[in-house]
Amino acid sequence: MIPLLEFKAQICSILSQLTSLPGDEVETLLEIPPEAELGEYAFPCFVLARQMKKAPPEIARELASRITPTALLEKAHPVGPYLNFHIRRSGLIRGLLPAILEGRGTERAAQEGRGKTVVIDFSAPNIAKPFGVGHLRSTVIGHALYRIYQELGYQAVGINHLGDWGTQFGKLIVAFRRWGENERLQEDPVQYLYHLYVRFHQEAAGDEALEEEARQWFLSLEKDHPEALALWERFRQLSLQEFKRIYAYLGIEFDQYQGESFYNTMLEQTLQLAREKGLAKESQGALVADLEPHGLPPCLLQKKDGATLYITRDLAAAIYRQQQYRFDKLLYVVGAEQTLHFRQLFKMLELMDFAWAKNCVHVPFGLIHFKDGRMSTRQGKVIFLEDVIQRAVELAQRIIEEKNPGLQEKEKAARMVGLGAVIFGDLVNDRVKDIEFDWDKVLDFSGETAPYIQYSHARICSILRKVSRGAAPEQAAELGLLTAPEEEQLVLTLARFEEQIMRAAADYRPSYLAHYLVNLARDFNRFYHSCPVLTAEENIMEARLVLIDAVRVTLAHGLELLGIEAPEKM
RNA sequence: GCGCCCGUAGCUCAGUGGAUAGAGCAACGGACUUCUAAUCCGUAGGCCGAAGGUUCGAAUCCUUCCGGGCGUGCCA
Known about the structure:
The protein has 570 residues and is α/β, with parallel strands linked by helices. 54% of the residues lie in helices and 10% in strands. The strands form 4 sheets. A 4-stranded parallel beta sheet has the order 5-4-9-10, sandwiched between helices. The protein has a 3-stranded antiparallel beta sheet with strand order 1-3-2. A 3-stranded antiparallel beta sheet has the order 6-7-8. Among the domains are: 3-87, Gyrase A, domain 2, CATH 3.30.1360; 167-247, no CATH class. It binds one RNA strand of 76 nucleotides through helix 3, strand 8, helix 14, helix 15 and strand 13.
């Protein structure tokens, strides 16, 4: 265990004994002081005031007097109503830096999910529709959670629940049969299908019969009509190829590409189960589950024309996934506009007597919209992810050309930086909030951005390259020389890495980790400007090399968890 | 109408019921013969949407209101 967590555990144990509060309650009460001079952890004594019938500052003083220093605990110091705990810096540094360099920096976190499985449903683009920036959110948040949970020791299963079934295929079939041209489909499948989709909605505005025709075709598709099936299969294959190309570029892989259509054969069984449990009943010709007693609107399981609905497929999918993976957690990284859907879904699973229903979690996120309104696939108001990535990579290329023209493998570095900027720009936002799409912001590589973090990483690599032997913790016996304020701050921030990973996982918020990395990079840049490494006196240089190497490892590791690469030169 | 989510610096956003509410961008002023200036330092900028309540303590929890977004039986 890294020293900081050991330190925290010691504090909990000591305080628990002195106050007779349970250890885990002490742990939740412990907080991180606003400034480093106030120690690493603080215990607010207000809670004890009533039972001890004393003023908090007095309690703090009293507790402090009964705590003796240990190898890790330098002092417990009362400041007003707070009891502040200071870690012994030399112990922290000597324990932490080698642990990071030996890959033991997140040992404790890795225990958490041992032997457990988490299934993550993310990305799930709609077949035959272009991959817009809107889809980026689910994709990058889901992917980051996938890696973060792996880091916690979970067996992670990433599922791409493709939108490859539903009424929209009726629309596409109608559109293609009326206006479709094979050559154009072959040339640029997704763009062309998208074009047909938009045209369908334009024409349908003045011709109501089209919508009805589309519903009929979808019904035919569900009944295995050969022509419908052949068109669907073709649209699906062509789209999937495109998506896989984009995922490859993003460096994302899925364990399963089981889209909605995969569950078609299980639907009858699912409906049957709902009937057996007394949940499904006829209403206005459709099959409906009444969730009124649970404070939810009714849940429509089957349309009056017999066609299925997505909640039925989601029910089947959840049941199938439990059978297949025996998951301990099932995460749905899906937009906040579907919150009601998931509340209904989870309630249905519960009412079907699946005890694991409580392990299903909707991880919602806000919409990406324009300044003047929301994006709409139907109206053709979208920004394509590929355009965004392309412009970001081009910008990275231009900057490299300007600042580092001699760099080898410029394209590779530009790709990492441009892509990183796009991914990070999404992840850094709290996922529940809506995002306004702004080209200026996407194409700004300064400040709290991936390039800033990557640049810090590249700077460290550059220093390390200039020392032939590299950093050698075993030779640097003098890690205790790292006493400059910038050095101490950097060490403390390094020590927080593991906590932040656990917090990001617990709240399903990769943004915590993103912000952490910005802080770490900032602490490094401050250090860089005030503490020379290569020109420092021998012992200090050795110690600083170890320090920056640990920063390098942590930055790269953190970025990796977010699905972002860290170039060694840029 | 009802339900859910969001209102923090000019803009974009951090902020674990706790100590003096913090960053980035933009603005202004500084720092490159020195490990990559995609950087760093400084200045300025706030009734934390409003009002009540709970609490020793509220940006954070509760209630109401205002503003915005999303959803609300045959789309996903």
